[in-house]
């Protein structure tokens, strides 16, 4: 093997150094293998989390749809209630006017009855 030092002459390693190099490479390969197994475990765990999250989103999607439907119905009911409240105010005003008119009519009838009674009472005395 060539040493990348300053000279271009080949340097030969002894068997001890080759064995140490092989052991170092073996440890590096084992370390990478462990890291790859950890990465695989992490990816599987991430996939499980993603699947669980998808289930939650799906389950909550129907709840959100129900809430949206309820909000829409509430909006419709509030609009209808506002219209009915407006109609009620108009009807209440009309009833109040009718009560006042009926009161005036009764008052006029009583006044006319009193006037007639007074006129007849004065005619009887005379």
Automatic annotation (TrEMBL):
The keyword Calcium appears for this protein: no
Which PANTHER family does the record associate with it?
Answer: LD23667P, SYNTAXIN
Tell me, what's a Pfam family for it? SNARE
Q: Which GO terms describe its biological process?
A: intracellular protein transport; vesicle docking; vesicle fusion
Q: What is this protein called?
A: t-SNARE coiled-coil homology domain-containing protein
Every copy of the T-SNARE coiled-coil homology domain together lies at 26-88
Q: Which GO terms describe its cellular component?
A: SNARE complex; synaptic vesicle
Gene Ontology MF terms in the entry: SNAP receptor activity; SNARE binding
Could you tell me the keywords of this UniProt record?
Membrane, Transmembrane, Transmembrane helix
Q: Which domain of life is it from?
A: Eukaryota
Q: Which Gene3D superfamilies match?
A: 1.20.5.110
Membrane spanning residue stretches: 100-121
